[in-house]
Amino acid sequence: MAPQPDEVGKRAAGVEDDAALAESPPVKRRIDRPVGRVRIEDVAAEAGVSMKTVSRVLNDEPNVSEATRERVRAVVERLQYRPHPSARVLAGRRSYLVAMLYDNPSSNYLMEVELGVLDACQAQHYNLMLAPLEYDAKDIVAKVEALVLQSRLDGVVLTPPITDDAALLARLDELGIPWSSISAREPNRRVGVVVDERSAVAEMIAHLAGLGHRRIAHIKGHPAHGASEWRLAGYLDGLERAGIGLDPALVVEGGFSYESGFDATNRLLDLPEPPTAIFAANDDMAAGAIGAICERGMSVPKHVSVCGFDDTPIARHIYPALTTVRQPTRDMGRLAGLELLREIRERGQGSLVTVPYTLQLRRSTGPKP
Amino acid sequence: MAPQPDEVGKRAAGVEDDAALAESPPVKRRIDRPVGRVRIEDVAAEAGVSMKTVSRVLNDEPNVSEATRERVRAVVERLQYRPHPSARVLAGRRSYLVAMLYDNPSSNYLMEVELGVLDACQAQHYNLMLAPLEYDAKDIVAKVEALVLQSRLDGVVLTPPITDDAALLARLDELGIPWSSISAREPNRRVGVVVDERSAVAEMIAHLAGLGHRRIAHIKGHPAHGASEWRLAGYLDGLERAGIGLDPALVVEGGFSYESGFDATNRLLDLPEPPTAIFAANDDMAAGAIGAICERGMSVPKHVSVCGFDDTPIARHIYPALTTVRQPTRDMGRLAGLELLREIRERGQGSLVTVPYTLQLRRSTGPKP
DNA sequence: GTGAAAGCGCTAACAT
DNA sequence: ATGTTAGCGCTTTCAC
Lengths: 369, 369
Known about the structure:
Two copies of one chain form a homodimer.
Chain A: H1 17-22, H2 26-32, H3 40-47, H4 51-58, H5 66-79, H6 85-91, E1 97-102, H7 108-123, E2 127-132, H8 140-150, E3 155-158, H9 166-175, E4 179-182, E5 192-195, H10 197-210, E6 216-219, H11 226-242, E7 251-252, H12 258-269, E8 277-280, H13 283-295, E9 305-307, H14 314-317, E10 324-326, H15 329-345, E11 352-355, E12 358-360
Helix pairs in contact in A: 3-4, 3-5, 7-15, 8-9, 10-11, 12-13
Chain A binds a DNA duplex (16 and 16 nucleotides) through residues 10-11, 39-41, 49-53, 55-56, 59, 62-65, 68, 83-84, 86-93.
């Protein structure tokens, strides 16, 4: 019924089959077996070695002479042989599967990170499973545990704020599951990737101070994210270095969403002495700030300068284009993936990588009015 | 070295092992075997049936009495048994793996679609593999073929413009690989999902005409996408219904990017008789239009009304918020996934689903100046 | 309606 | 440096 390539050749069997092949309908046999249906024993027979030797070559294991290695590789290439993933998993002790754990699915940030992790996995012939999770610390440990065990994960990549759930990390360690985190709140002694967000923000504040601004406000990020702390700390550093005293009224709560930035800005603009510049802890909130400012008939950066953090696509797509801090999101995903795989292969060898940021100066910041 | 849960219980062996279990270190055995390490034969032994019967129950196959079925289910539940995915794949003829093929990775649209497809797959215990592809018709067929064969895909979900590559579709059919498409250019006789984009756009034009606009421009989408054709057709329909003659100068090329919308709008505004309203074929281009208009010191919708298509997050995050057509992107992904799985299970049973659109009227459209 | 045996394609452990 | 054997945990086939 199903128009599938049929099942001829399902058993080409051992070495002695070369003879059998010469009989009956040999041509049909070859033709009907789609590429990829070649098995390790076909390669072994063709190369005149045992299956195990082929296996060694494929997995870069020692104890194969360079000559044999080359010969096997050539046959693999010629036969277009690709190992059956499930057979490898079933026979071996690894699943060649890692998962990326995340909350807040529809963000540009995560899409970029995901692409990076995928790059890393593909390069090393690992599979990536996506695990969107609702982050409510209650049952997250149980959920992740179920996932890890059912899917036999070899490791996980964690994204904020899941990076900071102590109970989860402890459980992963107990289970012996390697993990790698992106922008963890306490990155020390971890495997993963971070950006020096604090310095980045301090530089951004210096930029604003250089434009003459003295009343610089900050819209904080979501309290569950370590990034919110770092960005606040950078803001304070920046003020101090510019010799600007902190006005607590200029530091307001946000939550990383457009709406929270919009609302926070309205509160700031209602102040008796409103700010002339606003640093929002991410781009979405900065977009909200611009929306609120425009809605009052004011304009950016003429009346108020605005800047953000992340350099997501929205930064270039709003008017005026947003001054922001760029983190190399996709690279971060890739590096987090690579370090995880290293940790999987050689326990204890994964490390913490710090990647550089860059200030993207665009049109949303200008001289103090 | 690795702190892994150890390997005790790796061979509980046949039914007769119940006896063995009662001896030696039985408690240790239970404790050390993590959840998920229960095997089908454990379930069989516990339920007093054969492995095959358990298998039948798990796969909803016939020829099991309701009583037995219930008993097995209870044991499965109690033992928290989960079949080993790789073992199923290796033994069976299915891979339980489908891939989503896409180009243009970092779009909100695709992220939403992906979540929908993932929903469908998870609900049916299928795995989803992501296949970002560079769409240059040259070697795409070979690339996809390699992917399909190597990964033993059971099917693929196609997104625009990969949906419209005739050579690819033909090859997939030859290989007997089911596929499901989202917004294919020629959806007839296909499995997948579509929106009546043409009618949606016609309605949008009616909205603009109702606000008094007569000079309504259209920025076209990327020519490789069927959506561009539909949206243009809807624009023409809308004009005709409103009794507005077509001015070819008001229809300009775009390419779905912010920049293309920005440039196109500058061309439109330079016209001797510029438009008072612009319908851009997607939200990114509409954002570009707003950017270009603002840059000239004009404002939206006071001087020019702007509307888009898709209702991606950017529509709410720019100022003014964008009037646009909302397509239920995530649902579309989910439905495309479900239809694909149906097609996989029962050839010929997958179908084409049409999902509804809605007009999102926001602040970027207003009365003709 | 149910079960026993034979693989699926690969790797681990143990030869040699 | 290389080969042999025995599974991994499930489904298939075919017998009952």
